[in-house]
Each structure stands twice: as structure tokens, then as C-alpha cells.
Amino acid sequence: MDNPETMTPANDRRLEQARDWLHGLGVKVPNGFHAVAGDASFRRYFRLQADGMSRILMDAPPPGEDVRPFIDIDQRLRSSGLHAPDVFHADVENGFVLLEDLGDELYRDLLEPISATSHFPKLFGVLESMATEVDARGLAKFDDAALRAEMNLFPDWYLDHHRSQLPRARFDLVWEEFCGHIIASAQEQPQCFVHRDFHSCNLLKTPGNTVGIIDFQDAVSGPLSYDFISLIWDRYISWPREQIEEWMESFRQMLDLDIRPLHWQRYCDLMGLQRNIKVVGIFARLYYRDSKSGYIEMIPRFYDYVTTTLRRYPEFSELLDILEKTECAP
Fold first, then answer.
1. Torsional sign, CA 12, 13, 18, 20
2. Residues 6+ apart with CB under 8 A from 281
3. CB-facing half-sphere around the CA of 127: CA atoms within 13 A
4. pLDDT at 8
């Protein structure tokens, strides 16, 4: 959620419905709704004053959206002492949730080379709690099929739509073997609660100086390294490899993992490949299918993450060779 706050149209039927719902709960909205965010889904978020307090309204219109997973994960996080927003009221049938306002100080705007050492220990502490304390029972498994489906967004949307001149026969053979390596690495790791989008735009420094966590409704049970690599391979700032490796080792020691440092590094690198390949595919899909143009300009950063990591592993040299061809590069 990273769009600036704006006033909303007076004739928005969903907001009229939300106002009636809140009024029925005895919650008055004297100053109207102010749009504060948008993301890649059909959800919308609005800031409002309710009983003299700032609140956030989530508008998640069914049938395309379902607020029940959000409420479930929110309770899991809060039960573990993490600062997900308090849910004050929810209309599950119509897709409205009234939430605690965590503020608007995104870690995206706080993380920079000069401040990283002061912020990352706290963020790693959140990752540790999610990995060791948040209940993942009953969540969907981030299994082979799910991992592969995410990776296939890359050929299906980036290559087929954005780089359609690429000859696919050679790529498809290399791709199948590559996906096998990535999936095996992911499933070898310890499995735990996974936020799935743990990055600087979904983390806020709250007025109480806690780490506020949002956009967690797609959480699953999956590989230990996933949320960690989501944070260190950020969409807004690229960290030096030396720094990334220091963080890999710090997090390994924090969790007291019985995994050799280089083995853990490989887990992180290959998990980063899976996620960053998926991100390129998603951004292409948002453009070509959903007409959301703001994401396409972010593709080169994630594409560079992919090729830079591939370069570290000789067994992936054939895929790297294909991706560095003129007809494939971003």
C-alpha cells in the first residue's frame, strides 16, 4: 500500500454502503473517507475519523476479495505479540473491515544505507517471531504446485507478452530443470509461517515505535527463508552483496539454525530466484491483464536480481545465457 492520500468521489457506491454499515454500528464518519493506498488487488483502503480516532477502512469487494483470510492471519500475528492492526468491526459478507490506523511512516522511506543498521535488527526480530511463534497450522501449503505456478508467471506473462520474440523451445527445456532445482531447495528448508509479501512497503514504523505489519492475507506455511529474502531484495533499494551476505549470516545465527552458512546462503539465493522471477511475471501480468501501468517500470530491478544471482551458480549458466539475450532482457 503506497499511494498518496486523496479525497474520494462523492458518488462512490461502495463507500456509501460502508457509511451505512458504520452508521448502523454507531460509528459516525463526519469528515468522509480519504483514500490512502492501493495495491495489486481489488482492495482499497481509506482513512477516516471515527469517534475522534483515526481508523482505516478496508474495502474488499466480493466475490473477487474475501476478508476472512485477513482476519484469520491478523489474529495469528497479534496472538504472537506482533503488531498487525486491531480489527474493530468486520462485515464479512460485504467485504468491509474497520481497522486500527498504524500511521503512514513506511519503512520504504526509512531504509537507506546510513540507517540500515538501526532498522534491520528490529525487522529481523519480527521475522524471527513469525518463523518461530506464529501458528501456521491450517494454512495453505506453499507446495511444489504453488511454487511452480508462481514461477510460470515469468514465461506466461513476461516472455509471452513482453518478450514474445524469444524462441521458446530451448528455454522450455532449460526452464523445467531449473524449476526442479528451485523447488527442491525450497522444500528442503524448515517450514514455518510465511507472510509472502514481507517488504518495506508493507511495514510501518508506528507512532508507538513498533513494526506495523500489513498486507498479510496471503500467508501460507512455507520455506523459512522466504520472508527474509523478500525483505533484503527490495523493490526500492538494492543492497550490496556483501551486506546481503552479512544479513544472511546474522539471521542464521539469530535463529540458531543447524544449517551450514554456505548451505543457508544457497537456500536464500535460490528462494530469492523463485520470488524475484515471480515478481517479474506478476508485474507483467498487472500491465497486460489488469492495465496497471505503475508496476512495469519496476521490472528491471527484479530482473537484475535474477541475473545477478544466476551468475553465482554455474549450474544455471544456460538459463542465464538465454535471459541475457537481447530479445529477453528488460
1. positive
2. 150, 151, 152, 153, 154, 155, 156, 157, 158
3. 28
4. 52
Task: Give the three cell numbers for residue 202.
Answer: 508493507
Alpha helices in the chain (DSSP H): 13-24, 68-79, 116-132, 144-151, 153, 168-188, 226-232, 241-254, 261-288, 299-310, 317-323
Grid cell digits, residue 265: 546462503
Q: Check: CATH 3.30.110.30 for 6-100?
A: no
As a residue count, the chain comes to 330
46-69 pLDDT, tens digit each: 999 988 899 999 999 999 999 999
CA angle 212, 142, 94 (to 5 degrees): 60
* Type of residue at 122: K
Q: What is the pLDDT of residue 10?
A: 56
Condensed to tens digits (0 to 9), the pLDDT of residues 234-272 reads: 988 899 999 999 999 999 999 999 999 999 999 999 999
How many other C-beta atoms lie within 10 A of the C-beta of residue 163?
A: 17
Give domain limits for the chain. 6-100, 107-323
- Domain spanning 107-323: CATH 3.40.50.150: no
How remote is the C-alpha of 144 from its chain's centroid? 19
Query: How far from 263 is each of 6, 117, 175, 268, 314, CA to CA, in Å?
Result: 47, 25, 23, 9, 16
Write down the pLDDT at residue 169. Answer: 83
3-state secondary structure of 74: helix
Q: β-strands 53-59, 44-50: how paired?
A: antiparallel
Q: What is the four-CA torsion angle of 184, 220, 213, 52, rounded to 10 degrees?
A: 170
C-beta separation of 129 from 80 below 8 A: yes
pTM, two decimals, is 0.91
Instruction: Show the cell assigned to 238.
Output: 538494492
